[in-house]
Structures
1.
Amino acid sequence: MTLPTELLSTLETLLDSRLSLAAADRDHHAASESFHRAPPPDAVVWPETAEEVAAIVRACADAGVPVIPWGTGTSLEGHALATQGGVTVDLSRMDKLIGVRAEDMQASVQPGMTREALNTELRATGLFFPVDPGANASLGGMAATRCSGTTAVRYGTMRDNVLALEVVLADGRIIRTGTRAAKSSSGYDLTGLFVGSEGTLGIITELTLRLHGQPEEVAAAVCAFDTLEQAVECVTATIQSGIPMARIEFVDEVAARAFRQYSGLDLPGTPHLMVEFHGSPGTVREDTGRFGDIARDCGAKGFDWATTPEDRNRLWRMRHGAYHACLTLRPGSTGVVTDVCVPMSHLPAAVAAAAADIREAGLIGPIVGHVGDGNFHSQILVEPGNEAEIAAAKHIATRMAERALEVGGTITGEHGIGIGKRSLMAAEHGEGWQVMGVIKQTLDPGNILNPGKLVPDRA
Amino acid sequence: MTLPTELLSTLETLLDSRLSLAAADRDHHAASESFHRAPPPDAVVWPETAEEVAAIVRACADAGVPVIPWGTGTSLEGHALATQGGVTVDLSRMDKLIGVRAEDMQASVQPGMTREALNTELRATGLFFPVDPGANASLGGMAATRCSGTTAVRYGTMRDNVLALEVVLADGRIIRTGTRAAKSSSGYDLTGLFVGSEGTLGIITELTLRLHGQPEEVAAAVCAFDTLEQAVECVTATIQSGIPMARIEFVDEVAARAFRQYSGLDLPGTPHLMVEFHGSPGTVREDTGRFGDIARDCGAKGFDWATTPEDRNRLWRMRHGAYHACLTLRPGSTGVVTDVCVPMSHLPAAVAAAAADIREAGLIGPIVGHVGDGNFHSQILVEPGNEAEIAAAKHIATRMAERALEVGGTITGEHGIGIGKRSLMAAEHGEGWQVMGVIKQTLDPGNILNPGKLVPDRA
């Protein structure tokens, strides 16, 4: 696609040097942390205000040119790739903290602010923003993907922690959804509609986020089990007992070996749980004691408690460094990352079936998971450029998704649809996917907002 | 409106005696627990399956006749009134528990099942459904209104506790939204779109609900404060400290007098908080201790702890009986019930301003609230049929809503829009209200699903 001269001149007048057609800038916005690939966008723009975003969208709408919002580029399903060309709207200059209302436990931020930057700003307030997908993603991107991560079992996902949005629609209108109240029954949940819409219904230009109190006391532990079933039984019993886990992460024997190799930690090559507790000193003592009893009943051994911040950081650095740790199991490889979520009772069978598929394909694929939610990932290690291996890994990923659907689960717990999972949408949603398409068509009749993602192709 | 003969004959063939044109049945479905009034529907039907609901909707769509879903009729904003005539779909025969999956902490129910019936069925499982609006409403109606109640501060609202739905659309298609997984990033959140849509986008025919573990230990207390500000300061400090309150309810001095008069309880005529804690014996001991310290720091006196089930039931029966208790302050009166929700920091001023307006109007209007969420209600006592008083009460309600909007709050925390709050929607949502209208028009082009509610009138 070559961009129309009139559009380029409008954008140039509006943005001056914040419009780029340079190959380096365009290529940077064609990068993807996963195996998804697409040509670069035709242009990149760096707006600084919602009004500029609206003017960009209006100009692109007039020209019928795609608009692709860009946060930090850490999405895993090709969400921010310009698969149909067009203008990538890089929101990294809209990275300001607009305000913290500590008494209301809320913050308003621009979409390009990252979660780590927000938490750094919040340090002195006694509050924090808990959603933690691992990557230091932008908060706008996290909302657009409806992401979650290790702490969702306690604090919820982006669905639960976004109170209100400012959004630029496909015709350039700027709307506000939601309020600063903790709850509302006031009409359709437009905030909830835009959270998870992956830039296909509008571009988020401001978020009002729910904050939480920094816990007075934090304790973390890692413990080993002989079998997957024991570890999952422990998770189920813990959740049912109502112990408010802050994190409860599964690490399979393959991933445990990678962690040991990478970090030098003394982990046996068996399934593990990594857990964290937040509360007052008294409740954390009580919760850790109760969890310890349940875990031992389920066959846990070798508890390693981390109560100092240094020990805890070491533990969670290891978990968040899983991707790179696991790559060392096959030097030179890259990972095809899967992401399904199933009802808890189906978790042991789903994990076991995935592991068996990976073994049968002769591949290495460590499995980790946010098991308190029934969400797990395999990182199937493939040789870059080896199309046969990538196809085999994708086939395993598809089988995992199909099996998740068979037991009432979902094809993606937290990574979203993008281009990677569109082919599975009809299987999960049936006619509901058509309803999504109709909503998209109504709110974006010209199909300019991140086209080719999430919804069905138009007839 | 007289129903077309062809429609009547289709419905009769389909439903036989489960179609009624009798005045008694129609009048029963014109009743409302609030001051909203409308003529009865032209017919009432009692379907027993989703397929029957779909057939009813298809027949009404063909005839261009409104379809109004009906749960238990406990809505407060006229949601289920047939303001434009048509067929009321009474879902009370679809009241079955479809299944409990205890290991997954989920239940599937038909929409006509009430929350009390569900909790009775769940008694032996160790699980319960926590959303508690006071009334024994149907679960389908609760979802359609996105209601909440006293326990939302701990367990969330219907938004947080509905995992999946089966919905009949305006053209009779039956779709399923959501999954049985605890979370998902799979496309637009259609479940969230239908929750709170008040029957205007589809008729809910099945719900998958999130259950929670029955707490091992429960403790409740009521404590008095000298001033509103002290009570709210106590709430703010408690929430910020991270103490996981199960309920934290405000009762103003007028309501406290009504409770004393009605139940014979020894409550001083000052503001009170009623609180409840859920957990293990150890964590409840810790939490109640910490709350007690905070409350005393804020000036609380006269703690009355209720640890036996009998004492607790007496306490919450009093709170849930607030409506009838408050009516005794003015024998023969009826209540105009308000429902706003504001950011916590604005709660003292919002409550004080409402109380002042009520006093200035020469009316009696006790105030109670789910203050952990910033949500409060006044029940303004008016003489039935006294239009001047009703107008004055409505004016106060409108002022409360306007003031809530001025501080970033919402016009309804949990009662919904229906016909009662439509005139305030533009003020809360601006262009967003038009977006709601466009979504409604797309999914219900014939405007047959609960027309005249929630969204703007069509051009």
Note: The mean pLDDT of chain B is 95.
2.
Amino acid sequence: MPEWIWPGSDPVVPSDDRGLAYGQGVFETLRVTPAGPVLLEAHRERLLAGCRALGIPFDAGALDAWQQQAAERGLLAPQAPAVLKITVTAGSGGRGYRPPEPVTPRVISVLVPAPPVPRDGARVRFCQQPLSAVAAGRGHKSLARLEQVLASAELSDDEFEGLMAVDGGSGWVEGTRTCLFSVVDGTLVTPPRDQLAVLGTLREWLVRNADHFGLAVQERALTEADLRTHGLLLGNSVMGLVPVSECGDSPVPVNAGATRLVEDVNRELGFG
Amino acid sequence: MPEWIWPGSDPVVPSDDRGLAYGQGVFETLRVTPAGPVLLEAHRERLLAGCRALGIPFDAGALDAWQQQAAERGLLAPQAPAVLKITVTAGSGGRGYRPPEPVTPRVISVLVPAPPVPRDGARVRFCQQPLSAVAAGRGHKSLARLEQVLASAELSDDEFEGLMAVDGGSGWVEGTRTCLFSVVDGTLVTPPRDQLAVLGTLREWLVRNADHFGLAVQERALTEADLRTHGLLLGNSVMGLVPVSECGDSPVPVNAGATRLVEDVNRELGFG
């Protein structure tokens, strides 16, 4: 059975936790509202895929058990919108890097503040810190997030997000905590899955439902020319879609197709 | 001032620690004996370089303070050899990936079991898991160690270490927790610094003092032919040098130069 840690006064974990020691764990941040969690199934899928990739025996049954306990605690449908973070680590034990047998997962659930969202337009910048094309756990939301931490440290206070490129690749593929979208003449352009450090749940949903919003889909990295000509949207499942108004001190346009998509998506997912 | 956590009954860290959440931290494992710590200065240098690279304001003065407290607790010169692990994280706080200002480091000190060491010859294997050439924090002993964890999970119970290659590179450059050496006709061959996930303290010391052991130095990745012809040594500062006797079910020779180096180095550093 996993070890459960629930929101309370000053939750702590043993200092020998393998998530702390080596990054052997995954997490999800889930927007929860009176109507329930947003994109729950997508978050479940990514969490379980990450656990499999990292050798953590936390399966759908264990996740069901978490979900039931979280529901009983009122965490999945709070009175006001909130963000619920679940972290699943490989627990304690093992000899150095070698995991113990069996691994006993540790599951930490906490409520974290919802991020402020500049609905009228975000400032972003191009980051120097590259994404590794072969990082272990790539695509999964593992606890090893140094690339994103170091890219975030490049941002000034009034910059909302940093754009990142794959080392040796061309074009911009991802924000530190958002996926990237551009609406170009009726087509949703977004970087391909295999270039992403984290496979965004909102992105997956949006690509799957693009025709519902009257858009075709093209998957490719975005160039600076794309941004300057067609504009840029940022998206994740706790903020919805956010238009970009400025990148690196130069303006970024917001076209009519993008404005409509932002309104439609945010309404559909229950964002303000 | 950093927050200190010392060995005691069940040490814990707050669940919002940035080392746990994102891997924003570094660690060192230090062999400590009645004669004091082994290669202390090299461990200090690597720890401080890692903190600088990861934006953690833990400097030489803070490390001096740690060292003094550790000495007062008897941790640096125990009655029997032991392994002291120090972990320095970016502490708690911040908005998501963005670090707080200021960062208050958290310093966790624990005694961990000394690894068993097959002095008569280790079995190793070639690992599938590659090392990323551009991983954030590369060279530093950061808490983001998924590559090493996943490579270690490839090992069977009777395999002591796994050899890793840089993605897209040629040759073997590093073990999951050791550096690699081959003694070839009076020359110490070891992979170059810029190909290492972690810059080994024993390796640095050995390269600097090679002439003391009557050896020249050549820095290059090792091929399987090197291993099969000249043999392979594994080394780190908590185990000293260990000869390899078998790799992937085929024997690996141990030549006279390697045997002498193992004896000389282990004697000089106080290993049994």
Note: The mean pLDDT of chain B is 96.
3.
Amino acid sequence: MASSSSFLLLAVLLALVSWQATASDPIRVNGFVCKNPMEVNADNFFKAAALDKPRVTNKVGSNVTLINVMQIAGLNTLGISIARIDYAPLGQNPPHTHPRATEILTVLEGTLYVGFVTSNQPAPNRNKFLSKVLNKGDVFVFPAGLIHFQFNPNPHKPAVAIAALSSQNPGAITIANAVFGSDPQISDDVLAKAFQVEKNTIDWLQAQFWENNHN
Amino acid sequence: MASSSSFLLLAVLLALVSWQATASDPIRVNGFVCKNPMEVNADNFFKAAALDKPRVTNKVGSNVTLINVMQIAGLNTLGISIARIDYAPLGQNPPHTHPRATEILTVLEGTLYVGFVTSNQPAPNRNKFLSKVLNKGDVFVFPAGLIHFQFNPNPHKPAVAIAALSSQNPGAITIANAVFGSDPQISDDVLAKAFQVEKNTIDWLQAQFWENNHN
Amino acid sequence: MASSSSFLLLAVLLALVSWQATASDPIRVNGFVCKNPMEVNADNFFKAAALDKPRVTNKVGSNVTLINVMQIAGLNTLGISIARIDYAPLGQNPPHTHPRATEILTVLEGTLYVGFVTSNQPAPNRNKFLSKVLNKGDVFVFPAGLIHFQFNPNPHKPAVAIAALSSQNPGAITIANAVFGSDPQISDDVLAKAFQVEKNTIDWLQAQFWENNHN
Amino acid sequence: MASSSSFLLLAVLLALVSWQATASDPIRVNGFVCKNPMEVNADNFFKAAALDKPRVTNKVGSNVTLINVMQIAGLNTLGISIARIDYAPLGQNPPHTHPRATEILTVLEGTLYVGFVTSNQPAPNRNKFLSKVLNKGDVFVFPAGLIHFQFNPNPHKPAVAIAALSSQNPGAITIANAVFGSDPQISDDVLAKAFQVEKNTIDWLQAQFWENNHN
Amino acid sequence: MASSSSFLLLAVLLALVSWQATASDPIRVNGFVCKNPMEVNADNFFKAAALDKPRVTNKVGSNVTLINVMQIAGLNTLGISIARIDYAPLGQNPPHTHPRATEILTVLEGTLYVGFVTSNQPAPNRNKFLSKVLNKGDVFVFPAGLIHFQFNPNPHKPAVAIAALSSQNPGAITIANAVFGSDPQISDDVLAKAFQVEKNTIDWLQAQFWENNHN
Amino acid sequence: MASSSSFLLLAVLLALVSWQATASDPIRVNGFVCKNPMEVNADNFFKAAALDKPRVTNKVGSNVTLINVMQIAGLNTLGISIARIDYAPLGQNPPHTHPRATEILTVLEGTLYVGFVTSNQPAPNRNKFLSKVLNKGDVFVFPAGLIHFQFNPNPHKPAVAIAALSSQNPGAITIANAVFGSDPQISDDVLAKAFQVEKNTIDWLQAQFWENNHN
């Protein structure tokens, strides 16, 4: 617990006076512990060796290392976070949304096929899919709340990207996992009709092992 | 075009003076035409017979009639919209998200089985599914950006709900449609791996007719 | 009220880790108790039988049943609430404002004469009154902070409406009650001059019984 | 009014490049004309002799000189405005609300009796009236959307205050004027019941001359 | 500690019920103690004799008396604060920024030479300096985050201004103090290169006594 | 620059209908041209080869390549941008602020000595300087509006960082340039007193060539 008591909330950097900090219960904002501004230090805004090394990729061939308010408490209220994403050859960061953030991404190594789907359009239009092949140094934007993915089309080489998100706590919803791998499961009656398949297809899907790609 | 020129933006109700309104190009905010506040009238905040009648349900057995800033331009900047949802017997409003809004819903007629899935949790936890059976007068909340659905479990009777959303332009993303019915299609390589199925299952899914439930 | 301690704040659904939740003092956001996200359940987003039944109307002939963050703690930070309003024959929801919300309303039964008054305009203009008679299924918008009312003009039949507000805690200020029924009373010198009446008219007004229509 | 076309929007101070500014239609944000940042000058953030002189007070004995985005276009999007308020002996700034702003006030000369009324409380509580007598240099806060007033209790000396508001376009709703002096009038049936008086009292009130105190 | 426990947070004025206020640990929002709304009183929105008297000016000839959420806890979440600034003859409020607020200022006495510098422009443009001489009653705006100052050019007479800021906790960063007077000092290698001067010039600057003008 | 006229504003992705898009004047939000959502394409969210190559550093030894709403118009309203920063050996990104954004930074190559200065503290405290040496993969946060810098302490090797900012238009104010290199210059009387130096020191500073590091 020692380190938790050293967290600071920047929003109150100027506001907290000592009589407030002497209360026996720690002061919290958004559920996070704050700190007397005169006691804050650089470690409250720092995470060592966070994004330098490739991580082992998961079963769909990716790994997301997100540095958000859980890793750097000084981010509280500041509306930003950063991530490194590793992609195995032919690996993907599967279709997902961030319920509270837009994402901007740049490729550090390799090639990525990326895309997002717009929200529903008036009939007879369908949800529009916008995609692009990105090379090193290219930048792409995934607007808040829209379903998007990245895929490494190269069968031999890994890829690496840096992504930034417009929230200190963006959240992530991997579509396949949330729909077919939730605990408890969503009724297969509902899903069979929604996805226009037989119930046993849904049952098969729900029986897979759903590993969360990132949170 | 006559009606469009009569739209008002409430945010500037007090601010616009005549020399500004006399410009030959209409004033717009968020892309919508504004109106001199002295010329605004009650029709700019009104939609007749919007939500009283059952509508024909779609192939999954529901119909969403959303009254947003497209129907009532006076809603611009005001952060709210309202909808009536009709459900056929065994009909559903299939799993979807609103990228820019929380939804609160109450049942007017019939019974609904509703639920939402939380965002990804740290392993070994899975996305949590929270559900409830709602009867007439019950109220339920679907937090912003989370995947949710409503299903009418009654094989004989329709159901009706009123829902409100915390945006004048909430958007909707029907998951199955956005993932399998986009234009153009998402690569079946990507989707097969994401959903842990064979590519021909994806191809079959993509070959279905995907009708947008609502926008 | 034991269940109140199990309320959850959705904004931290992804953020709270166990060492934070084990603190002996409950975590609060906006003054409300939060909950470990793995312990949240559907009841935190649900209110049973909230809006199905007519309620006894007050002395001006209406009853507002508001479901806000006090009734459903999961609404915290989510910016929306919902209400059922019952109107006796010739009853009204008297002129009031919501200091923190826009309202959108639809009629479920009966007829309503509704209106709002714009804020002050440059002289010689006066505050503009915009009104409309609403029938079943009509939708009307009351912009944030403006004085508005609903009146059931039918001497024989009740009316019912569903309203949604763009805040989880919109507040309500019934004009007559706040001006003439406050505790303690506002000086009758001030009010007599403001309303251009004799002081004994003010005194008579202040002597009435002011029942709060809703909060 | 040539100078109106030279107004700048600060929010885009860094963003507009010349190819955007060369469009024949002026660029607007919130309905106000913007300006190429390289052409902006100090006059766009300045109003001369705005608040130095006493102004003639109105029939309730006050005058509000508000400097908002209409007077200084550079205020657009910046969320603040300032006002000088003059009070005749026994004059008042009558009960009013600002639908989009909190107000903070300090007395420059004389004495003021000020107060605000909280929003509706759960029964049996009534709207609470909080008041204070202010002398030179005292500071008081009127929270957003709440009904408040200032009254000069001195029968011989005027008073002066400076007030600031948390919006570049706060709006003002003088309660008596909006309720009894709107154009057109609110139905006296509605108002008689809301204010618990006879209709002829309402008619008498509506027949007064309602001069807008400020906008 | 008695007075601290009587602070109120307005945002929850309508929301807190007694079972919440009876918890043994005080409820806080933004790190400030809240109060049961039925126990709030006018003192929570009031500061006596805050801005009436000239204060002793500091070594650069000014004094800022800021009334923010630290002085009036009822300001919490309301987004505004107010200040009196005294200027000795030839005194200045030196170049500084407010990281979280726009400032609007009016002159009460004397004359002020004021200005702000825009943010960086595309080359070959330089940061633009906008300035103005203000007399009594003039109003000027300093946009959020931009470097600005006020200077009293009169060698014989003091000056006084009232300023309002668009945050209950605007913060202030006096440029010279933050750059040359921080604790610990910034490396003189870094500053010498940034300011294009010899290191001994930086060392001399850092050796001065840096008194904080205001916070 | 023809493609610039085809930029889209995502915020209205769902809202614009064709009759609005057919107006002869383009629709703008925040001063930027919007686009019919059915005509939007991936290029509106993409910038090729934006951040892959080292750029020539400026006279203080750095180069900031910022991808904001000027480079990718689809970023409008989405609240994020990204930058690559190159540092020559012993080069620095000199002390500066972002008036509208927090920055989060990770090192791609080399070593950086970074720091920021807190805002003014109550006497006798001084502005606190928090600093850290960052190696490859470390992450550091510079809170919104605070003065910060990065310096490459290695005399032989360059360094590279990726930074993200919590605004699509964060702005930058290089302190030395804004204070000493503005156009026109700030009065040396004012600056001499503020910085506690002789006027000829200020004159010498103002005579330097001030090249904008980034905008």
Note: Chain A is about 15% helix and 30% strand.
